[in-house]
Amino acid sequence: MRTLRIVLASLLLASVTTLAAGEQGRAPRLRALTGTPLAPFSPSGPANVVFFVATDCPVSNAYAPEIQRVCREYGPRGVSCALIYEDVDLDPSTGALDRQVTQHLTEYGYAGMPSAIDRDRTAASFARASITPQAFVVDRTGAIRYRGRIDNLYAALGKPRQHVTSHDLRDALDAVLAGRPVPTPETEALGCFIVDPALLRKHDHE
């Protein structure tokens, strides 16, 4: 239900609900689910991969195995991964959102991966993230070198391909680690729109 509401609301009100701010100001620091500081846009190694996800976006959840494969395979090469949750339905002040995200981390095999809730959309605004799932490759200088889909599994919403033929995120990581330009720095991600929760609540009450 929440996914349907986000997709419909975003398609109808995209001009006012999607986040469109660019990479401005200092890279945001978040509080990880463990309570420790998390700085996903400030790599300590050659690159970070930041994944914007949501607990009940079906496209985001379908990518859980590939997200884990990418992090497992590139970890030995110095790449760190982080999950940033963009859920809007639950009030963060009640603790319900933290519990939901913690349960999701366990259910989808993400336990142990650095994760945070983007409670005020600071991270999404900084990175110009608009979809879950959406991947970002950040190089050692803090520059976002890639923004977009993980691969081309989905030809359109609800229409997965039988075989992936374009591994956009992996190609970007390989390029950054080799010191080469990323072949396609930005691609279109498919999934559930990230919306401003305040605007969504206002829309629900109208």
Walk me through this protein's architecture.
- The chain is of the alpha+beta class.
- It has one domain (2-205): 3-Layer(aba) Sandwich (Glutaredoxin), CATH 3.40.30.
- 34% of the residues lie in helices and 20% in strands.
- The protein is built from 7 helices and 11 strands.
- The chain has helices at residues 2-17, 58-62, 64-74, 96-107, 122-127, 168-178, 197-205; strands at 30-31, 37-38, 47-53, 79-85, 115-117, 131-132, 134-139, 144-148, 154-156, 159-160, 192-193.
- The strands form 4 sheets. Strands 5-4-3-7-8 form a 5-stranded mixed β-sheet. It has a two-stranded antiparallel sheet with strand order 1-2. It has a two-stranded antiparallel ribbon with strand order 6-11.
- The longest helix is centred in the first third of the chain and has 16 residues, at 2-17.
- The chain starts with a helix and ends with a helix.
- Mean pLDDT is 85; it is low at 1-23.
Q: How do the strands and helices of this protein lay out in sequence?
A:
Layout: H1 2-17, E1 30-31, E2 37-38, E3 47-53, H2 58-62, H3 64-74, E4 79-85, H4 96-107, E5 115-117, H5 122-127, E6 131-132, E7 134-139, E8 144-148, E9 154-156, E10 159-160, H6 168-178, E11 192-193, H7 197-205
Parallel strand pairs: 3-4, 4-5
Antiparallel strand pairs: 1-2, 3-7, 6-11, 7-8, 9-10
Short description:
The chain has 206 residues and is of the alpha+beta class.
